[in-house]
Design a protein that fits this description.
309 residues, Rossmann fold, Alpha-Beta Plaits, six-stranded mixed β-sheet, four-stranded antiparallel β-sheet, ATP-binding, nucleotide-binding, ATP binding, ATP hydrolysis activity
Length: 309
């Protein structure tokens, strides 16, 4: 349905997307996962015909959108990372404006506007000016604008950035419903849990390159011989972390807030040693959980760093 072949993008001398290949089939939900600056937004811009690639080609139903972008644009819904709304208009007026751009009018435009307001949970705020909305409400309206014309494919570029947990949960529930209804979806994020929840297949991108691709299960097989120990403790210290790294040179030791994560080969049986090192460093461990591999572990294995680093 949508295919990218050897896509490359340079800005002056800087290569931000490096000869990537991607494919979306009808009805698939595909995740594009990577840290900020990985090249996700530039890739999205090329796939949606907003930016021409330096080299390579994008095809929509076997038609090149480099040469014929209208073939895709008529049936594409896109939710950009930045809010794209008119703050001085009401929610209803914003949807009516974007609906007309898509060619909707008359009774059909009215009906679709009301349907979308209901879907995004803003029917009771439809006559309120958008500048009075919270960040989460603006995000929901942004999504609504992309759905007005019943697109065949929806591209969402980090739609939950900078919003409160309640709004984020609402948006994820809405997107999950769209996926269950058969929407073809390309979803970019640097939140592992969102991509795991929504997507059938996942591309992992870092420094402009696709470094892995597959289903969640296929990707986790890359680290199937590994285990992750999650430690919670009083008085976590850098000395404790350094001692662990010295004792387990094949391990990856990283701290996330008040949790210490240690990834290492399954053949290791480390818990007794970890507790002994903790005692030597005046660290009191309150819990130790051995976890199955996650997508975060896959990313760490491939890049040597955590996704949000």
């Amino acid at each position: 349905m949508l295919q990218a072949i050897n896509l490359q993008k340079k800005f002056k001398t800087k290569e931000v997307v490096c000869n990537i290949n991607m494919q979306l089939e009808k009805g698939e939900s595909v995740g594009l996962l990577g840290p900020n600056g990985a090249g996700k937004s530039t890739t999205i811009s090329m796939l949606s015909s907003l930016v021409m690639p330096t080299s390579g080609e994008v095809f929509w139903n076997k038609v090149s959108i480099n040469k014929n972008p209208e073939a895709l644009r008529k049936t594409l819904g896109i939710v950009p990372q930045e809010i794209a709304l008119y703050p001085e208009l009401t929610a209803k007026e914003n949807l009516a404006f974007f609906g007309r751009i898509y060619g909707l009018k008359g009774r059909l435009l009215i009906e679709r506007t009301e349907e979308i307001l209901l879907k995004i949970g803003l029917s009771d705020r439809k006559n309120d000016i958008v500048k009075t909305f919270s960040g989460g409400m603006k995000r929901r309206l942004n999504i609504g604008a992309a759905l007005l014309h019943k697109p065949s494919i929806l591209i969402m570029d980090e739609p939950t950035v900078g919003i409160d947990p309640q709004s984020r949960a609402y948006i994820l529930d809405t997107v999950k419903q769209l996926v269950e209804e058969g929407m073809t979806l390309l979803y970019t994020s640097h939140y592992m849990e969102e991509v795991e929840l929504l997507c059938d297949k996942i591309y992992i991108m870092d420094q402009g390159e696709i470094i892995a691709y597959g289903t969640k299960e296929e990707l986790k097989l890359l680290v199937s011989d590994n285990q992750t120990i999650e430690l919670k403790a009083h008085l976590l210290s850098s000395a404790f972390e350094e001692a662990l790294q010295k004792q387990f040179p094949m391990a990856s030791v990283r701290k996330e807030e008040d949790i210490l994560l240690i990834s290492m080969p399954k053949k290791e049986e480390p818990l007794a040693t970890i507790f002994a090192i903790a005692a030597d460093n005046a660290v009191t461990i309150t819990s130790a959980i051995v976890k199955i591999p996650s997508l975060e572990d896959v990313f760490l294995h491939l890049t040597g760093r955590a996704l949000r680093d």
